[in-house]
């Protein structure tokens, strides 16, 4: 059965800090950055993960990107890595990792995704982390776990699942999750969230203000931030998609991706107080 994504379905599972919570207990999120000229997407994702409540957020970047990222972050931490193996070792302490935004369409990204999949962290894979597997999707699906999340827009979806969209978006997302054996978030004006066990929800509250560069990067950080706080990956994806659209509607005209993390506390507070958001 296809459900409409409604806060009633996941509101009670949102992770709020308790009186004794410390930052590490709240959850640790890693975000993998691209090269020095492609760091904005990772910073958008990392900030969104921090805003949605991950207690510790760390960007992992190629060595040449340190000098660019370090002056552009405060609470977010930074670790350089030189090889995919080194990256996999560094993320051992992380609960969830976002990889793909502005990662680059080359073998480095393939190697990074595959190495990360062997770590214990749940993965949120977006953008280049998906597109780089065009024509070789089996290599991606072979390393995924059921708590990993793929977040394609329709262009990226077509690269991984050629022709599948002809079945209709809901059926396509369900079949994609079955093939990938992971959560699939098929983004768009309506976003479909499907799990390999057959759960599927359609988010009908999409905000057209989201049609601007970088909002998908923010969404990947929000999903990762909730998973890092040990929310079930499917519920985390559903909650993040809804909150993302709610924040966009609250801001309205003039929204750019950077604004989402600044207005998100209003959405979170409404959910925390338990009133109608
Ligand atoms: N601040 C930063 O650092 C940012 C960095 N970013 C990073 O830049 C990199 C490249 O990003 P990108 O936008 O060029 O790649 P991508 O989205 O694959 O578009 C390529 C083609 O795909 C199609 N297509 C696109 N969307 C579609 C849709 N919804 N539905 C259907 N089709 C769609 C469309 O084809 P067309 O329709 O034009 O034929 C389009 O021309 C990537 O790493 C990303 O993470 C961005 O996140 C922005 C902020
Ligand atoms: N017209 C629209 N209505 C509702 N949501 C939209 C619309 N256009 C884009 N979005 C949302 O904005 C985000 C865009 O993500 P994506 O295409 O990956 O962009 P980017 O790669 O620039 O971050 C997705 O969450 C998508 O669902």
Automatic annotation (TrEMBL):
Catalytic activity from the UniProt record: (6S)-NADHX + ADP = AMP + phosphate + NADH + H(+); (6S)-NADPHX + ADP = AMP + phosphate + NADPH + H(+)
EC number(s) from the headed UniProt entry: 4.2.1.136
CDD domains: YXKO-related
Required cofactor names: Mg(2+)
SUPFAM superfamilies cross-referenced by the UniProt entry: Ribokinase-like
Superkingdom of this protein's organism: Bacteria
Keyword presence, Oxidoreductase: no
Record key words, sorted: ATP-binding, Lyase, NAD, NADP, Nucleotide-binding
Amino acids binding (6S)-NADPHX: 41, 153, 217
Residues that, per the record, bind AMP: 187-191, 216
Pfam families on file: Carb_kinase
Function according to Swiss-Prot or TrEMBL: Catalyzes the dehydration of the S-form of NAD(P)HX at the expense of ADP, which is converted to AMP. Together with NAD(P)HX epimerase, which catalyzes the epimerization of the S- and R-forms, the enzyme allows the repair of both epimers of NAD(P)HX, a damaged form of NAD(P)H that is a result of enzymatic or heat-dependent hydration.
Protein name from the UniProt record: ADP-dependent (S)-NAD(P)H-hydrate dehydratase
């Amino acid at each position: 059965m296809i459900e409409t994504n409604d806060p009633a379905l996941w509101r009670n599972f949102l992770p709020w800090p308790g009186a004794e919570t410390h930052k590490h207990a709240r959850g640790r999120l890693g975000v993998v950055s691209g090269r020095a000229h492609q760091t904005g997407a990772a910073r958008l994702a990392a900030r969104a993960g921090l805003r949605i409540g991950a207690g510790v957020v760390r960007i992992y970047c190629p060595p040449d990107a340190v000098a660019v990222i370090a002056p552009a972050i405060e609470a977010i931490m930074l670790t350089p890595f030189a090889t995919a193996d080194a990256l996999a070792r560094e993320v051992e302490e992380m609960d969830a990792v976002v990889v793909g935004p502005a990662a680059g369409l080359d073998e480095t990204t393939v190697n990074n995704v595959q190495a990360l999949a062997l770590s214990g962290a749940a993965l949120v894979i977006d953008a280049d982390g998906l597109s780089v597997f065009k024509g070789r999707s089996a290599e991606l699906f072979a390393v995924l776990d059921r708590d990993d999340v793929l977040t394609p827009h329709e262009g990226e979806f077509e690269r991984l699942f050629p022709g599948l969209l002809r079945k209709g978006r809901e059926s396509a997302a369900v079949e994609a999750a079955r093939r990938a054996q992971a959560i699939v978030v098929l983004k768009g004006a309506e976003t479909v969230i499907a799990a390999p066990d057959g759960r599927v929800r359609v988010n009908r509250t999409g905000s057209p203000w989201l049609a601007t560069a970088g909002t998908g990067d923010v969404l990947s950080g929000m999903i990762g931030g909730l998973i890092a706080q040990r929310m079930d990956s499917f519920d985390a994806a559903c909650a993040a998609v809804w909150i993302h659209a709610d924040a966009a509607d609250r801001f309205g005209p003039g929204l750019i991706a950077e604004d989402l993390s600044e207005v998100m506390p209003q959405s979170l507070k409404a959910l925390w107080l338990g009133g109608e958001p």
